[in-house]
Amino acid sequence: MAKTTIDSKYIQQHLANERTYLAWIRTALAMIGIGFLIVNIHFSTNSTSMISDQIAELIGIFSVILGLIIIVFATISYLIKKKQINEQTFQPSNRVVWMVSIFTFFIIVLFFLYFLVY
Prior knowledge:
By secondary structure, this protein is an all-alpha fold. It has one domain. The protein is built from four helices and no strands. Helix 2 runs antiparallel to helix 3 and helix 3 packs antiparallel against helix 4. One of its GO terms (cellular component) is plasma membrane.
């Protein structure tokens, strides 16, 4: 017979925590993909604008950095929530959501500037 663990008391919560973690990882990969996509599309065309070149590079750099930051924060958040679920001290955190929202807004502004200049 299998031994009952603390984790097994809260199976649904742990599974939800894992799904949330995987959703953050998908978001991070999408951000990184957007960065590579815009840079590849931009530099495969004949661009004569130095400003649009710089904006495309900024979008690529910030998208990759944001993706990596999301992975780090998602992993930390997952581990903290796992511990909080077992201790029944769960407190939702807004830091990751605010950070991703602010950086995503910044990337969207860069996209707007890019298409305005290009």
